[in-house]
Amino acid sequence: MNSKLNLANSSLNHMPALFKKIPWEVGGINFDIGGGRYNQATGFLFEKGVGNIIFDQYARSAEHNFKAIEFMEDNEADTATLSNVLCVVREKSERLNLLSLAKDYLKDGGKIYISIYAGDGSKRGKRTKSKTWQNNRPIRTYLKEIQAMFPNACLEKGVISATKEVHDEC
Question: Is 20 within the bounds of a domain?
């Protein structure tokens, strides 16, 4: 039996609850990091007049991800989402890489929204039956990690959000 993790298996075929909690603005672009292999969020946002660009290095093809990054190179996201993504990534350095990716393509003043599935809440990470990983940590335990990239991140109503700070230009 192959003991390797397959994070693509953590992709669920349902509408992420996080997307129903965000005040979307018509004409905006959302950068959906770890958006999985399904397109429910894209359809939901289309109906709200928002474009959704999915990047998922585990559940999407290299070609798809290349096109997503290519699009983001020419556009800035008004919002970025990580819906139950950080909780399935074992290594802190990789979680920080995903947050950095969001920050790179989020416009100044844009907002990031993060949800976490706490699993069994034991705070002990482990491999799941579907050969994925689950950190089993409550959302509040991710806040300091997220604040390393987004210092103004806060937890409210089960969602961590932050605004990308505006940088003064010379």
Answer: no
